Write a sequence for this structure.
């Protein structure tokens, strides 16, 4: 789990914090130039020109509702996942029996491929929004649970003893020690789940949705418009970068003591 | 005056602590038997070799562990059984500072006061008083990670004193600091203990530190039994070298020295 988290943090570190190192700019500009030359020699349905992609981006700017719908789906699902996942983690932390019985189920949920959840959602639910929310929550909530529980369990014995020796109530012990000590793990979990949920929501929207970026991508695919696919992909990446920057800003504010 | 309004003697009676190791199931005797009384206002140093059960005794004394047999009583109550009763009555300084890294020094010192339910203004006033007394008034908003080990340990002292406890306990509290810093902070600790007329127990593996600081010295064998119990004021400065040698020999033999046991206390 820790390894997975560190990989995720490393991946988002490239874009977070508003820092654009020289290497990032060079590689992006090099990619743009290569694409430009590719668009000159390859047919437009393989590598459309930047002008065509720019036109698609302008068209997308005229459809902010699709962006807003996808962002809203992700936002609501992540908040529900966080509340549910953290509540389960707290119950597991508080009662060993809850952990013994619930952990196998949480691990089972995490082992099921996203595609299977999409198929289950289509079979089980009629309402499209319920399907999408179910898929996102069932994928993201277990990650919040595992990460939050790891964070709670990771509080050092020294600090536990010190606070216990002050004789707090159970709720004081949790609020004054366990919760603040778990914040770094929870923020890492948010970063991982933001990235994951953007990818999952587009897949979920591909199946059965009539709005959102995933639906728009499907339409672009049906009309063989690589420029539109490329433009929507750029939008998705920008949304993820913006969201990661917000989480990083929150992280800097909450974890100022680590700097 | 302490939070309890009164000071009490600490009675250790027939105390025994046995652990069963997880996994192997091997039984480990940490405390063989301890019987002694610490009188109110006494400053007692407990010395023993590493692994002799001093820290186990410390954890039983503060109520984090139950005794296997026997008891520790303070004012007719036991720190483990009457856990909540001792909120704000025992101040503890641990081996490391154990400050919460996400809290400023001020907020670390107010932690015990928050748990006691004191109003914010009083918490702040008390914390500022003790941080100032320990020379940290310029660092109220600093995080522990920004400070030296000595400054952090002084903040840990402030946290212990701020609750105005009846008893102060220090477990190897200065051993991790360099000699000069340790001597300085230890001096501050015992000056404050004596100024505030607290009962204090210092647990250490350093005989020199124990002799320098305590009014009374308890020597623990391994597993913890009482090998020696003496009032240091009864020893003249030119006799201390002899005393050190006798205690070293006692620790080496792990046998009680009848001449170093106060009358009325019977080591087993």
């Amino acid at each position: 789990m820790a390894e997975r988290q560190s990989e995720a943090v490393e991946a988002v570190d490239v874009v977070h914090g508003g820092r654009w190192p020289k290497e990032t700019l060079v590689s992006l500009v090099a990619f743009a130039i290569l694409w430009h030359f590719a668009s000159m020699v390859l047919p437009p349905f393989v590598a459309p020109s930047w002008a065509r992609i720019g036109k698609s981006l302008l068209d997308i700017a005229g459809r902010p509702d699709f962006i807003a719908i996808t962002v809203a789906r992700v936002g609501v699902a992540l908040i529900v996942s966080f509340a549910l996942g953290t509540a389960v983690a707290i119950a597991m932390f508080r009662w060993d029996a809850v952990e013994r019985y619930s952990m196998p189920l949480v691990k089972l949920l995490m082992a099921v491929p996203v595609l299977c959840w999409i198929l289950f959602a289509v079979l089980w639910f009629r309402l499209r929004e319920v399907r999408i929310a179910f898929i996102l929550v069932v994928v993201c909530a277990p990650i919040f649970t595992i990460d939050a529980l790891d964070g709670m369990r990771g509080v050092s014995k020294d600090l536990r003893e010190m606070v216990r020796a002050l004789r707090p109530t159970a709720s004081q012990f949790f609020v004054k020690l366990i919760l603040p000590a778990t914040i770094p793990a929870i923020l890492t979990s948010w970063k991982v789940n933001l990235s994951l949920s953007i990818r999952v929501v587009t897949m979920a929207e591909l199946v059965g949705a009539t709005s959102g970026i995933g639906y728009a991508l499907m339409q672009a695919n049906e009309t063989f418009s690589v420029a539109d696919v490329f433009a929507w992909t750029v939008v998705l990446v920008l949304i993820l970068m913006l969201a990661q920057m917000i989480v990083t800003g929150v992280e800097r504010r909450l974890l100022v003591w680590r700097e | 005056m302490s939070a309890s309004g009164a000071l009490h003697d600490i009675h250790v009676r027939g105390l025994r602590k046995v652990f069963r190791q997880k996994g192997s199931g091997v039984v480990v005797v940490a405390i063989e038997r301890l019987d002694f009384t610490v009188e109110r206002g006494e400053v007692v140093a407990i010395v023993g070799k590493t692994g002799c059960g001093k820290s186990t005794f410390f954890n039983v004394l503060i109520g984090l562990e139950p005794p296997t047999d026997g008891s520790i009583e303070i004012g007719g109550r036991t720190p483990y059984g009457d856990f909540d009763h001792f909120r704000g009555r025992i101040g503890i300084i641990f081996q490391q500072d154990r400050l919460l890294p996400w809290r400023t020094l001020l907020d670390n010192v107010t932690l015990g006061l928050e748990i006691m339910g004191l109003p914010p203004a009083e918490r702040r006033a008390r914390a500022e008083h003790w941080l100032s007394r320990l020379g940290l008034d310029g660092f109220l908003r600093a995080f522990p990670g920004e400070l030296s080990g000595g400054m952090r340990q002084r903040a840990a002292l402030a946290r212990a004193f701020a609750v105005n406890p009846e008893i102060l306990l220090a477990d190897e509290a200065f051993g991790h600091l360099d000699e000069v810093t340790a001597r300085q902070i230890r001096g501050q600790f015992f000056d404050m203990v004596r100024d505030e007329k607290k009962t204090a127990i210092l647990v250490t593996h350093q005989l020199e530190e124990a002799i320098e600081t305590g009014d009374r010295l308890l020597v623990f064998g391994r597993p913890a039994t009482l090998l020696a119990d003496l009032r240091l004021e009864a020893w003249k400065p030119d006799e201390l070298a002899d005393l050190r040698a006798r205690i070293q020999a006692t620790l080496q033999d792990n046998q009680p020295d009848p001449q170093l046991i106060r009358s009325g206390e019977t080591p087993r």
Remarks:
- The mean pLDDT of chain A is 88.
